[in-house]
Amino acid sequence: MLNYADICGKVGELMNWNGKFDGLAFGGDYNPEQWPESVWSDDYELMREAGVNLVSIAIHSWAQLEPEPGRFEFGWLDRVMDGLHGADVRVDLGTGTATPPPWMARLYPETLPVQEDMTVLWPGARQTYCPSSPVFDELSLRLVEQLAHRYASHPALAMWHVSNEYGCHNARCYCDVSAMAFRRWLEDRYVTLDRLNDAWGTAVWGQRYSAWEEIMPPRVAPTFRNPTQMIDFRRFSNDEFLARFRAEREVLRRVTPDIPITTNFMVIRHFNELDYWTWSEEPDFISNDHYLSGADTNPHRELAFCADLTRGLAGGEPWLLMEHSTSAVNWQPRNIAKEPGEMIRNSMAHIARGSDGALFFQWRQARAGSEKFHSSMVPHAGRESRVFREVVELGGALRKIAEVKGSEIESRVAMIYDWESWWASEAECHPTIDFNYRDISHAYHHALTASGHTVDFIAPGVPVGDYELLVVPGFYMMNEQDAAVIRDFVAAGGTAIITYGTGVADDDDHAWLGGYLGPLRDVAGVSVEEVHPLRQGEQVTLDDGGNADVWTERVNLVTADSVVIFDSGPVAGLPAIARNVSGSGVAWYVAAKLDERSVQKLVDRILDEAGLAAIERPPSGVEMVRRKGEGTSYLFVINHSNSAVELSVSGTDLLTGRTGPVSVAAGGVGVVREEDG
Ligand code: GAL
């Protein structure tokens, strides 16, 4: 039987999406409709100078493509397609459906999205649609059909870019049309009202439903809303967008069966509206948009996490970085420009972690509109600018490392990632607002990265496979099957690190009884009797000199041994870290949010014990990631630090041509071909 990675591989091979452009993809969103046509020839010349080979167009262009209902104007797009083809640039063609034209709101106001307080979101920005609207469905598919037929055999067409960042601005719609769709979705899920009443725990606060028509989206209510209803509404909203994607995809597959189809995900810390595991097998290949947070003093860590997670969604296959920025964005409170060299480090870090290219938002910086202060490949200052020079440099660097295309990452450690646990753990009325799912997963990802490992991400409930170490961070919403795969992994000799906040509730968000950790208690050899969140800023000490904050737990040892003990705080004298031998493997349980040093110390100890210590540990502030090709491997060394690094490994740096022990300048990047890899 094929596993998921094989299936992805097969689809990827059949579609050969990364064979649609030479070398690695390089380019970005291109919005020529914002400029007089006289600028276009300058664009093509600059694209040639930079080495651009792929651009995404028409993503938000519905209003230009269909200025009145049923009247299509493709002339301008024909000229853009032809012009790009003439410039040797391939096209990732948007289906234009991300933003409906203003006439849709005027003629069909019921298509507008509505917030939880029933505020209507009016036209004037973008993504102004309700995903459950049958009118939107019909009109968007009509546009896709037209586009698909018109460009089916255009030589520039390389791939389809369906919609844009589903759920970015209109993630949940609470209108009456959505309410009806939500009820249909609930009937499918629960079949009977009794089952729904049970799952939603409607005996609490007298919420029992006696007719499907009584059920509403979780609109603003007098106080805390039913948490299971909230989770189900998120699941429903996810599925509505997925249905939109599938509907467009089916039109495209019918008309252009050989053109690969993607939609750009938002695997980024601040976005959690979609459960991307439910999407991962749907496009022909995975693409992602990623932006740094200006408030983050170590943004490359978050980038590494997201790039690894995106590779997980791609089943380990190469994926495509569809958007990132050359410098500042425009949508944060303080939009910090990238330092010289930072853009190249960022692009290379995505490629190191599996992207077969580096695309940007956007090609030419807008003169007008909300994004005029968003950096681009060609900035307001024009060609004579630091940013454009770096863009040209990056284009050159990507040509030099083109042979890495198609190579993959091999990892011995994996982390379970669960969007539903993220959703559920953020609900109101929890023990503390400081429990942060992403913080927990980031802490362990960073420690593993710093110790020289590249972490693969896997979905909950799927067999763990050949990994040797598995991290289970804050897996709040856990069912029997989720626990069974972890149990099997440990029983067969694996090592697991399980953290606090795991196995608190089941899929209905009902608490596991008899001690948290629920079905995983036997594996961890402990039972969690009570949680003890800490006051804001409060720290407790551990008997090995470490600290913890935010969250502590009262843990009872069953078969596990205590390794580190709380020295102070509400559970002083009780275990903070426990170790349990289970079958042929070992499970570690961490009952608190440890400080960064303690996480690192623990991870290093576990890696040592499991025989997984990396041969060469990256110096501080340096990322080291290997992509394996046929009979060779490529070591990416990304130096975020202020000093040059010398490593003991050697090979040929594809960027400089230098052979021998690897050395990388401060702020620089090395991509080293290791012949014996
Ligand atoms: C993305 C979006 C792009 C652009 C970019 C700016 O979310 O897909 O169209 O707006 O952000 O950072």
Textual characterization of the structure:
- About 30% of the residues lie in helices and about 20% in strands.
- With about 675 residues, the protein is α/β, with parallel strands linked by helices.
- Among the domains are: about 415-610, Class I glutamine amidotransferase (GATase) domain (Rossmann fold, 3-Layer(aba) Sandwich); about 620-675, Golgi alpha-mannosidase II (Immunoglobulin-like), CATH 2.60.40.1180.
- Helix 10 links the parallel strand 7 and strand 8 (about 320-325).
- About 50% of the residues are buried.
- The chain binds beta-D-galactopyranose (GAL).
- Beta-D-galactopyranose binds near residues 165, 289, 329, 371 and 374.
Concise overview:
The chain has 677 residues and is an alpha/beta fold. Among the domains are: 413-609, Class I glutamine amidotransferase (GATase) domain (Rossmann fold, 3-Layer(aba) Sandwich); 622-674, Immunoglobulin-like, CATH 2.60.40. Strand 23 and strand 24 form a beta hairpin.
